[in-house]
Design goal:
15 helices; about 40% helix; about 475 residues; 2 domains; 6-stranded mixed sheet; globular; single chain; binds nicotinamide-adenine-dinucleotide; Aldehyde Dehydrogenase, Chain A, domain 1
């Protein structure tokens, strides 16, 4: 069995104790890994703090080169990363490869960005230049649905800007982050990147730590609120990428087969465990029955199984807690709607929920109003478009969303009325590290990715100079 290690102060070390990592396709442990305690967390933060002056003083081009080297190193071990990701997370191996390559690609995109000083005013009397300085120690806290690529969204900009880091993965998917730590141990100066793991007990300590300058958090809205209150005492910078309950709004001019397929994919990719997965769909009266039937057909045909089986399209739910929550939501769906495909967990080891389509369901049922984070899609009927838009917007969340229509101008006009950070028109899941990603309402605070996302790892410093001879 491989020995996974924490990375603290440039050394690969054992944890204070160990913990089991469960393969969600079997419901059984397949690996042990180190578990850090609070003393190790403090050591990791201290190491990151000590490494900051030298790292931030290095020319940006050197930091860029090291990020590129990390991308190359991940790619060189892509098979190992993908296999580990499938075993700990559950996703089909092809998708794990895609995430691994996307992780390397994301690091390269950030490595290609720059932080040149900007002249913001230059007139007869003044020259004002905005410089971007790093913040210090960044704590990167990630969830279990995309443990690698969501880490890259934080590693890339934080390191390029000159910050040092402590990485803390979700307790159920620690291994791929520890593998990244292994590579960082070889590539980066001691203390620049540190990895710790926990059982949901160290996140709060990390976010409250006085020597952490910024928290980059991706996870649920409930935990995001805890993070926000814990950073308040030191007024740390914080980025919160939180939950969503994204709607797909289908207009009446669509090709039903084509759009049903795309919506089905958007609702079931990664077993529906995506912050921007399609989690409810609104379909006009005239095509409602046909649309539901098509979604149900696709659900019945989808191959559900272990991620290691090449024929698998949809893997298991990632962990037992989430599996139990989905089972509860399925009971609600049975009570408040009509299930026309799926609906029961598979009777086999592991946490398998087949793709499930729920029709004739009320807006206030839990399966519609809550984030399911599962391959379960409620289909809602509408007769008036304004009313449908109001129902789409009637949510505490505002992360993503999609609008589908042949008349692209009309679809675009509808998209502009959806209160979300991103709205896709006639496509979905087009995530690009060049593009700023953010949530409205309770889906988040701040921006990840794009140039704006890079700026979130910096403090702007305005130098405002008088021109010689100016009064
Ligand atoms: P979670 O909130 O349970 O956990 C996320 C991380 O926070 C884990 O590393 C966890 O250990 C840590 N944590 C737990 N308690 C903490 C505390 N008190 N302080 C600080 N950190 C703490 O989320 P999850 O169940 O792992 O992930 C699923 C959620 O993440 C979904 O709601 C999903 O929509 C959201 N998500 C959002 C995005 C986005 O970009 N907006 C992307 C992916 C997932």
């Amino acid at each position: 069995m491989k020995q996974f290690k924490l990375l603290i102060g440039g050394k690969l070390v054992d944890g204070a104790s160990t913990m089991d990592v469960i393969n969600p396709a079997k419901g059984e442990a397949f690996q042990t890994c180190p578990r850090a305690d609070e003393a190790q967390l403090n050591e990791a933060v201290a190491a990151a703090k000590a490494a900051f002056p030298a790292w931030s003083a290095r020319p940006i081009d050197e930091r860029r080169e090291l990020l590129l080297a990390l991308a190359d190193a991940i790619e060189a071990r892509a098979d190992e990363f993908a296999e580990t990701l499938t075993l700990e997370q559950g996703k089909p191996l092809q998708q794990a490869k895609f995430e691994t390559m996307g992780t390397a690609g994301t690091l390269r995109v950030f490595a290609g960005m720059s932080l040149e000083p900007k002249v913001v005013l230059d007139d007869d009397t003044s020259k004002v230049i905005e410089h971007r300085a790093p913040l210090g120690v960044v704590a990167a806290i990630t969830p279990w649905n995309f443990p690698l690529v969501l880490l890259a969204n934080k590693l890339g900009p934080a390191l390029l800007a000159g910050n040092t880091m402590v990485l803390k993965p979700a307790p159920t998917t620690p291994l791929t982050t520890l593998l990244v730590g292994e590579l960082c141990a070889e590539l980066f100066p001691a203390g620049v990147v540190n990895t710790i793991t926990d059982q949901n007990d160290l996140g709060g300590v990390l976010t409250a730590h006085p020597d952490v300058a910024k928290v980059a958090f991706t996870g649920s809205t409930a935990t995001g609120k805890k993070v926000l209150s814990s950073v308040a005492s030191t007024l740390k910078r914080v980025t919160l990428e939180l939950g969503g309950n994204d709607a797909a709004l289908v207009l009446d001019d669509v090709d039903v087969k084509d759009v049903a397929q795309k919506i089905f994919n958007g609702a079931t990719f990664n077993a529906g465990q995506i912050c921007v997965a399609i989690k409810r769909v609104y379909v006009p009266d005239a095509i409602y029955d046909e649309f539901c039937d098509e979604l149900a057909r696709l659900a019945r045909e989808a191959v559900v199984g272990e991620g290691t089986d090449p024929s698998t399209q949809i893997g298991p739910i990632q962990n037992r807690m989430q599996f139990e929550k989905v089972k509860e939501l399925l009971e609600d769906a049975k009570a408040n709607g009509k299930i026309i495909a799926g609906g029961e967990p598979l009777s086999r080891p592991g946490y398998f929920i087949p793709p499930t389509i729920v029709r004739d369901v009320t807006d206030d049922s839990r399966i519609v109003a809550e984030e399911q984070f599962a391959p379960v899609l409620p289909v809602l009927r509408y007769s008036d478009l304004d009313d449908a838009i109001a129902r789409v917007n009637d949510s505490i969340y505002g992360l993503g969303g999609t609008v589908w229509g042949k008349d692209v101008e009309r679809a675009q006009a509808v998209a502009m009325r959806i209160n979300s950070g991103t709205v896709w028109v006639n496509k979905h899941l087009d995530m690009n590290p060049m593009l700023p990603f953010r949530g409205s309402k309770q889906s988040g605070i701040g921006v990840e990715c794009g140039e704006e996302g890079l700026y979130e790892y910096t403090q702007a410093r305005l130098v405002n100079m008088a021109k010689p001879g100016a009064a």
